Amino acid sequence: MKPLRVLVTGIDGYIGAVLGPRLLEQGFNVVGIDCGFYRDGWLYNHSGTRPLTVTKDIRRITRADVEGFDAVVHLAELSNDPLGELSEQTTYDINHRGSVALARVCKEAGVSRFVYTSSCSVYGAAEGGDDRTERSPPNPQTAYARCKVLVERDVGALADRQFSPVFLRNATAFGASPRMRFDIVLNNLAGFAWTAGEIRMTSDGTPWRPLVHVEDICQAIILALKAPREAVHNEIFNVGDDEQNYRIREIAAIVGRVFDGCTVSLGQPSGDNRSYRTAFGKIRHHLPEFRCRWPAELGARQLRDVFEQVQMTPDEFSFRGFTRLNQLKYLIATGQIDADFYWRQHALVADRTEQFNQRSSVLASQT
Ligand SMILES: NC(=O)c1ccc[n+]([C@@H]2O[C@H](COP(=O)([O-])OP(=O)(O)OC[C@H]3O[C@@H](n4cnc5c(N)ncnc54)[C@H](O)[C@@H]3O)[C@@H](O)[C@H]2O)c1
User: Fold this and answer.
1) SS3 for the chain, per residue?
2) How high is the pLDDT of residue 269?
3) 74 CA distance to ligand 1 centroid (A)?
């Protein structure tokens, strides 16, 4: 059988940097697309081969870019709530309109499967009641989460006999990726445990947060690519494990146990009302091979081993490249991206070319 040709957007991010090599190992024919916001941050080297990657903004993708692929895995978005607050308009532009436009060109070009990484954050403030299932009404609290709901709605409406979108509502990720993120809860706490020997929570840690290891997200994506159409066509799946609904203070306690000598202290209740427990039965039913292999404690141990191996310093832990909001603020402040988060490089190169041409024609007229 010919290998599936898969285009992965956002391949240079936290999940993509793990997914790319995994797809190649599984025999997929893979190409990546990414505009490269976070390429400054690379915590450790790993042995996996990385797919060929094109540098391009998904808002500029045309039909020609996706022609010939059997499937697209779409990861390229502004990937957390604080980024949505930085520029709500750009969040809608990339995450909602950009994702829907991408799905449309995929459909036009005959790409038959479109795997979209949604998020359990669509459940928002869901304290009390039953664990959220895919049928529970979403209650998004932020622009980021509202965009996820809108993409599910609008891309779902494109589904037909030739085009099968699949929506993976991932729990909050954790675990090692070379393109590390320290702005997600377990990774952040592990970074403090390693660099400061203490976890000082600013909140009381009561909110619920389902977690899933980045390798288990990759497993879900791979199964969604391989599954027969009828198992996944236009389906939404929560990605995680019933056993991995934690209160944030439990996550802190787990991390505290893994890092020798680490102390954990709690703060006051916070104004952050995002709290939800999630049910993960449906994915096991449709994709029976799916199983979370990485409980939180194992992921914390993995991080401890990585930090030890690279002898991670406090400066590395707090480096902007590992915190999405800080990196984007830096790119804006230094004029590298514009207010709409497009790289200015092309403009700079164009300006310089123009100056060069002007100077050349002046010189030519003087000779
Ligand atoms: N990490 C998590 O906890 C988590 C949980 C649920 C869902 N998700 C979703 O999974 C996806 C990937 O998450 P991640 O943690 O790898 O995020 P990330 O921020 O590490 O990676 C996103 C990648 O997309 C690229 N990108 C962003 N905007 C782009 C654009 N306009 N054009 C081209 N490339 C662009 C960035 O350069 C980056 O490499 C996101 O859609 C995110 O919302 C992540």
Assistant:
1) CCCCEEEEECCCCCCHHHHHHHHHHCCCEEEEEECCCCCCCCCCCCCCCCCEEEECCHHHCCHHHHCCCCEEEECCCCCCHHHHHHCHHHHHHHHHHHHHHHHHHHHHHCCCEEEEEEEHHHHCECCCCCCECCCCCCCCCCHHHHHHHHHHHHHHCCCCCCCEEEEEEECEEECCCCCCCCCCHHHHHHHHHHHHCEEECCECCCCEEEEEEHHHHHHHHHHHHHCCHHHHCCCEEEECCHHHEEEHHHHHHHHHHHCCCCEEECCECCCCCCECCECCHHHHHHCCCCCCCCCHHHHHHHHHHHHHHHCCCHHHHCCHHHCHHHHHHHHHHCCCECCCCCECHHHHHHHHHHHHHHHHHHHHHHC
2) 81
3) 9
